[in-house]
Design a protein that fits this description.
59% helix, mainly alpha
Length: 85
């Protein structure tokens, strides 16, 4: 397909540099750069984090954490009801 595209001077210079480095035409270099850019956008990004110890003290029991959170939430809802919110 033939089309007219206006490139900023800095981008045109970079594509010309790719063409010169790889010994290919400006058209080929432009197509390669566009394909590489579009392919990079299509690839899902993956993030990795490292697990770290929580540093909980011995004897701390987290099995009741959800029950505690629910009780605190209930108290807050009751407080808002009393205030008429």
């Amino acid at each position: 397909m033939r089309t007219t595209v206006t490139l900023d001077d800095d981008l045109a210079d970079k594509v010309k540099g790719v063409a010169a480095d790889e010994g290919i035409s400006f058209k080929e270099a432009l197509n390669r750069v566009l394909r590489a850019g579009l392919a990079a956008r299509a690839e899902p990004r993956t993030y990795r984090t490292q697990a770290r110890p929580l540093g909980l003290r011995r004897g701390v029991d987290l099995t009741q954490a959800l029950r505690l959170a629910a009780a605190l939430e209930d108290e807050e809802i009751a407080r808002k009801i009393e205030l008429g919110k």
